[in-house]
């Protein structure tokens, strides 16, 4: 018996759940878990169905297309581990957390490779026997640098790219190659403190909470669909450095929770938002 | 157009969602929100469906009974406000919070009456024009006292009794009259610090967290199905009194969240547990 | 035996704690609780000392001035209840929470009066026998409206003004009359979603967390020293209205916690920030 | 300039802060951070002072003994990294988290060695070049097994032993060798679900929150002074296995926070409790 996840996203109408689950029933598939959501403001229906059984994928999609609105977006995805390539700069906390969790089974992911624009994290990658590609951005244009990265990344046929504190801005051309497939951790509680030195900004403002945001990257800088956010309480005694140090813990925790959600097909992107079924 | 909530609880089987939503579709009912859960350990299926449309309740139940296993528990309940009677002793924080939230629309509930075994909270009830019944436990047996309360309570035809810091132990006879209809706030994070003086127990143990538990009352003292729990962080500087004072905030917050869930038919009791769809 | 709080705020130097506590010791005052903080970035020392004993206030201040840097800011304040005047518009949740907590002893504060630019909340004020002044902003200029309010407020000799969802912008002239004495609850996690309709902004952005901020009001709109912030987790299923409804709970909780801190002299304002000793 | 932490623990009396900080001032030491606490129920005074300057340790202690009550407990400790030996069984999540945080600077600790009663975690230790000692408990008595461990541990002159999911009960003889120097992570929110299979217990009880507790080990099983606790919210959809899986995240997070506190000399043990200054 196999397991798959069926993701349906279509215009709202009466009877959708009945029709979709009817097709599953006809295919003698067992529903392990089912979640729906209707965005009334946009008249949009979303459903995620975890199925178990013998799958004739083509036939199922076919049967679903017959009963659903013509513009429906239907995906039947395997629940096998997803492959990721991780992009990093110098900071180790997010990469280290992902490597360690993948190692002991706390995160279901297949780390295909790590790409760094500095060599700092190569020793860490080696500990876990993950290929590390050092691709310096120095002495080449942004486009040249990205092209070198793309060449390496495409060789790995990854499902997702994970920016684990990759501190360079990506061009629209790069982003468009991986639509809704690049996951970033923003070192701030978006939309506050967008851009550089968010912890210094937070310190200057005297905030009592700092946070982090994991989001898909699209072509509006810091503005892609948010997957997960979390915060910690801080106080006057935290220097800007203390905020950064404590912020790292939230960053890695939020990134790793977002990865868990995406890896389990629990996140549906629509417009600039996400539906997260968990 | 009316709104109702359909609650189904039956042995798990293939095709249940399809069958139930099929009946809803045949009745031209619109599904506003749907939630399911399968307890694999017990082979039990639970579904909560918010419906909108014209209801022929008897026919719907009838149609559902035809397609569902014979031992299914099917409820179609109105989404009108529930009526509660609140039982209190002397402490005002939980009662006050419920009264105030009901007043400004933060809690959808119809408070029919308040019953107190002391007179302390009568002035508070009067502020909000809620009938207050002072029924002292002094000079009468436990059974006599409860009989007096039952006489008053039954007159109000309440859906639920809420023990808002009612500090007396109820007899099995009383509890049996209101099966899964009595909601209690336990001034502790159950199952820790069961019984008397939980805050002193917590202080003596030096815990770094205190909490509260809202649960249905059954005949195992402090052991009924848990609806909601929450905690706050504390430290060495809290005296037992400070713990109690801060604990009150958690108590009222947890009780009010539990009431919100129960009032919106989001809680299904089975065995000594709850399924909470929210 | 009396209790007072000594607040010291001066340029940092060696021996300050020793000197200040030495003066307290010479006056035979018992230190109940002591908290210090040095802002190294600004070379500033802050200390809050809860004292018990017989106070000769003038002499103590005199003795402290002798041993501290000449620009020190020294306050010896009674721990008696503070008086507040509450300004409201139409929403009841923050006002209701303060009234109820003050009623049952969950908030140590003396509510002198309530001023509203609508009559909506007069019945709530009456329940608790607090004078309510309806001062409409209609048909008069902003300055005229504020002058009317000032005339009423000054009659009450309040320590603090509390804006409990007072939905009008105050002029610099008004704010200057009450320096660091106006406490506002901002219906957002500052500095995100500043200004109008923050819940709609949050919904459109698809955030997974919403929050509230209590701060002192100064003449930069939404920019005064932050006292307290808190957040709740939300998800895609919340409409903009749901965010607002749930946000109200955070608003009242944050405002009431901020009031608790300010009423107990645990907040020191300096520049655009606060030191919060608790 | 050096940094040290002065820990004072004595019977409460007037003037203690003044006397202690006076001695520091006389030694021309700069106070970086100061924290005090008086346990009024026990008449006990606690103070932690972070100092910077040139230290004549013996003379300072001497001067303090002159001015403090005769039974005072005075410690002047270096702020150098502490050395730990970690004891493990088979589970990798706590060990992995400590190793990774120590690697990237998220935890200030010097890991001298790892001792395991299984070989499972040796490869993980090797990745980080930490000596791993496999000391099986099989085929020997509890005392013999512990003696073998003690022989190895004592060779490392560790400040603390960390039980990172070490699943064996220690004898009083072992515990007495390391008084208040053994830190354990208990896979439960103490005092709930003490003992074996806490996640199954939690699942059977239907709790809505699970947690973990880091505590010093003394000779009352599961009853030593609590250092840190935390919880996560769960619901009916978590199986006992899901609770365990999610519980692991809390366990490692709580253990690592407790280590941070202990490593920075922020925890004072007295009786069966802790004062935690942070």
From TrEMBL, chains A, B, C, D:
Task: Say which enzyme class the record assigns.
Answer: hydrolase
- Please name the catalytic residues of this protein: 222
Reaction catalyzed:
(6R)-10-formyltetrahydrofolate + H2O = (6S)-5,6,7,8-tetrahydrofolate + formate + H(+)
Q: Which UniProt keywords apply?
A: Hydrolase, One-carbon metabolism, Purine biosynthesis
User: Under which pathway is this protein filed?
Assistant: Purine metabolism; IMP biosynthesis via de novo pathway; formate from 10-formyl-5,6,7,8-tetrahydrofolate: step 1/1
Domain ACT stretches: 5-82
Q: Give one GO term, molecular function aspect.
A: formyltetrahydrofolate deformylase activity
Tell me any Pfam family this protein matches.
Answer: Formyl_trans_N
EC no. given is 3.5.1.10
Q: Which SUPFAM superfamilies match?
A: ACT-like (SSF55021), Formyltransferase (SSF53328)
Q: Which domain of life is it from?
A: Bacteria
Q: Is Ribonucleoprotein tagged as a keyword?
A: no
One GO biological process term: 'de novo' IMP biosynthetic process
NCBIfam families associated with the record: PRK06027.1, PurU
Family to which the UniProt record says this protein belongs:
Belongs to the PurU family.
Function per UniProt: Catalyzes the hydrolysis of 10-formyltetrahydrofolate (formyl-FH4) to formate and tetrahydrofolate (FH4).
Query: What name has this protein been given in UniProt?
Result: Formyltetrahydrofolate deformylase
């Amino acid at each position: 018996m196999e397991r798959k996840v069926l993701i349906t996203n279509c215009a709202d109408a009466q009877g959708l759940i009945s029709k979709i689950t009817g097709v599953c029933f006809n295919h003698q598939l067992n529903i392990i878990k089912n979640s729906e959501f209707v965005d009334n403001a946009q008249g949009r229906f979303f459903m995620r169905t975890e199925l178990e059984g013998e799958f004739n994928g083509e036939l199922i999609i076919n049967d679903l297309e017959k009963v659903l609105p013509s513009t429906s977006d239907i995906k039947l995805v395997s629940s096998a581990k997803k492959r990721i390539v991780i992009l990093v700069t110098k900071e180790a906390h997010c990469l280290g957390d992902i490597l360690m969790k993948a190692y002991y089974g706390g995160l279901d992911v297949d780390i295909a490779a790590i790409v760094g624009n500095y060599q700092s994290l190569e020793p860490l990658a080696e500990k876990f026997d993950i290929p590390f590609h050092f691709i310096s951005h120095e002495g080449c244009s942004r486009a040249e640098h990205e092209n070198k990265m793309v060449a390496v990344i495409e060789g790995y046929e990854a499902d997702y790219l994970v920016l684990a504190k990759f501190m360079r801005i990506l061009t629209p051309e790069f982003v468009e190659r991986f639509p809704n497939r690049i996951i970033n951790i923003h070192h701030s509680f978006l939309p506050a403190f967008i851009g550089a030195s968010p912890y210094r900004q937070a310190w200057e403002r005297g905030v009592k909470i700092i946070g982090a945001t994991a989001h898909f990257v699209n072509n509006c800088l810091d503005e892609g669909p948010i997957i997960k956010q979390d915060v910690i309480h801080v106080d006057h005694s935290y220097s800007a450095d203390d905020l950064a140090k404590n912020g790292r813990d939230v960053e890695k925790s939020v990134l790793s929770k977002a990865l868990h959600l995406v890896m389990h097909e629990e996140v549906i992107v629509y417009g600039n938002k996400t539906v997260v079924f968990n």
